[in-house]
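Re: weekly structure request thread

Next one in the queue (400 aa):
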Amino acid sequence: VVTLNTPFFDSGELKIGGVTVHCWRAGGHGAQNFVTATENSCNPVFAILGAELLGAEKFYEYITKFGFGKPTGVDFPGEAGGLVPVPGQVKFGEVARWANVGFGQGIAVTPLQLLQAAATIANDGVALRPHFVREIRDKDGNLIKSFASQEGRQVLSSDVAKAFAGVMRSVVVNGSGGQAEIEGYRVAGKTGTAQVARTDGRGYGSERISSFVGFAPVDDPKIAGLVVLYHPKGQVYGGVIAAPVFSAVVEDALEHLGVKKRVDRPVSPKTTGTGERLSVVPNVRNYSRSEAEKLLRNAGLRSEVQGSGEIVLDQVPKPSAEVPIGTTVQLITEDWQSQVESRPLVEVPSVIGLSIRDAAEKLTRLGLRLQVTGSGAAVVQVPEAGTLVPEQATVQVKFE
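Done, posted below.
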């Protein structure tokens, strides 16, 4: 029902099925495609996907194909099946329920089911029954019994599985999963920060479950893993506290398995038409302010922090953007939302082709500031046109 480039627009909240789904970022993420919405963990986009674009019947078909809602059949006692709503049997708002399931609420899954689903994507769309034990040998090393995987079931086509593995890779390179990366092993995965349902059935409480699920290496997967942290104190985002654990454990596991690290050739720095050197913006989402600032300095970039929090939840320009050396990257911390509630959000206009005077006038009318590099006509601007930023934010413009 979508391609990787299907466009969406996130204004910060979505009214659907009589409920309002909120984005974690004040004012939303603005224009996105399917890939960037996944990188951003954008709830409204996945609510639309679950309730409207897929719809209850097709969504339920694939939820059950992946193995949710029933035991995996693992050779270990006491396995639960989880809870999955059934189309036509949902009380109190069917559309709202499937919107919630789209971003992970209104459904209960076990860690093993979630890991099996990630492994299915890594296995080119084939779901395999998990086992706790691979084989049993006697004291002399003779094989007594083997628990080889049975023939699996094809859940997704190989092409779709590979495409979505690429999306999960992008979550690590450009999105919320940057701290899961392992140098030389190219991790693919997804962060999770879940609200915990209240025991009295009245919605969700203040406790959280933080997670990261993924596999590596993305181009030839050898291991899939899931880290789940229950009821953490302090920082609760999966990309902040679960992703680094995944990185540390899986790196050791891959080395133990003898998987060779990939050695990427250093990329020569690119230049503009005028010979100015460019830098690739690193992914600093879910890093501490000090770590983020250090990574940016190493890339030849400056930083400007919005908010007084300790964790960077978003950045402008986005990761992987190519910008001139010395460009200032705006770091949006986790308390930014509360600080900007009284500051209206502004859509950045295009000033390309304008003189310094005209660009300044256009930005000032919208309550934005101008930072000038060079002279002549505007040729590059950061943030790009269409980006939502708080009033009084700075727009960096290069003139030639």
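DSSP finds ten helices and 21 strands in the chain. The longest strand covers residues 204-216.
Next request, please.
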